[in-house]
């Protein structure tokens, strides 16, 4: 680990002298001739230690010290004094300086001081890294906690507590990004099946024939490419829970088979004669209106009623504005720690924008907006300019330019990406607007390698 030291002094000779000595000790150095420049450097590069003169024009060493210790509390600052009295130095220590050294600088003593300060810094950094890893592991083990204090969310928490211990089928509905998968996780975690697997199947991502063998497994030779026998997800989920995400996308023949699992707890592998019995709890989710799908004959009514013993409907974020501050604060903390930024909150204008925005991509969009704002933000408070274009009135994001002379597929990729951005990753809306089916959209995302951008 090579440490980088920022040297701040208005006298060029002192700066270059100190820099030369520190580079001899194996450190990297960056220089600034006043406090303002020093703050710019701190934003631009990772700095491990600051050495600053106490008396400088524009921003004095004292002011700089105060700024650094509030914005970057983990960076030690060593003050150089000489012009003033020891009193100033003592005050600097009170203001959070790591130590001070008087001019003319005794390089041996400075070198020792730096070494000691950096040992502490290294320990602090390692400690933080460990903490981050531990909290990441914890989160993975327990799953993310669902936040919310709106009446709607409190009711949902109660409903989850009530139905989780039962075996009742649950249909989770709600727009994209409202937390359907989190509800499924919570239902499984709070059930007596929690130590058995929770198997998730993303029904829209698979073609019809693949979905069938994915769910029920297949025998060797059942179809071209079926080189060996394979267990399906229902078998893998035995004694646990299966989560059928985007259930509205499955075709009639798979619908019949799922209905049979619900009624008889049995099925056959694709190409197989043996009947397999399983004990699986089925939780399904959709952001379509399944009732309409039933009315229009695309979804079996008997299956709909079987799946929908209990319905948990997640209202869109714009209908539970009370939850925005809570979620936003949580994400702010997480993202700030992830990106090592010291951010306290929002300025009032930015906060108002967050509250009044319509959030078509719901909580997923909120998270993305906050993460990018945290990355862009230059001070302790996020401002309106840190928010993405959809928050500004003079938005011009409803057209894209497609250069002539590129292949059709490239043009399509640009168009799909722009539409997904416009609808904040909402795939139903995007496929509706593009006039293609959701499956087609998923296939194209896969083909164009866009899956990871919009998951
Ligand atoms: N109540 C909540 N508290 C905290 N985080 C939440 C909450 N609801 C959703 N999230 C977060 O929002 C993101 C989207 O949630 P999730 O994947 O469950 O949505 P979804 O409804 O399944 O969306 P899609 O229909 O697009 O699959 C996730 O990062 C999730 O952790
Ligand atoms: Mg989901």
Descriptive key words:
single chain; 455 residues; alpha/beta; Rossmann fold; Helicase, Ruva Protein, domain 3; five-stranded parallel sheet; elongated; binds adenosine-5'-triphosphate; binds magnesium ion
Report on this model:
- The chain is α/β, with parallel strands linked by helices.
- The protein folds into 4 domains: 131 residues, Rossmann fold; 165 residues, Rossmann fold; 74 residues, Helicase, Ruva Protein, domain 3; 47 residues, Homeodomain-like (Arc Repressor Mutant, subunit A, Orthogonal Bundle).
- Helix content is 47%, strand content 14%.
- The chain is built from 18 helices and 16 strands.
- The strands form 5 sheets. A 5-stranded parallel β-sheet has the order 2-1-3-4-5, with helices on both faces. Strands 7-10-13-6-14 form a 5-stranded parallel β-sheet.
- β3, α3 and β4 form a beta-alpha-beta unit.
- α10 crosses α12, α13 packs across α15 and α17 crosses α18.
- The radius of gyration is 29 Å and the shape is elongated.
- It starts with a strand and ends in an 8-residue tail after the last helix.
- The model has no long low-confidence stretch (mean pLDDT 88).
- Bound molecules: adenosine-5'-triphosphate (ATP) and magnesium ion.
- The site of magnesium ion has 3 residues, from α7.
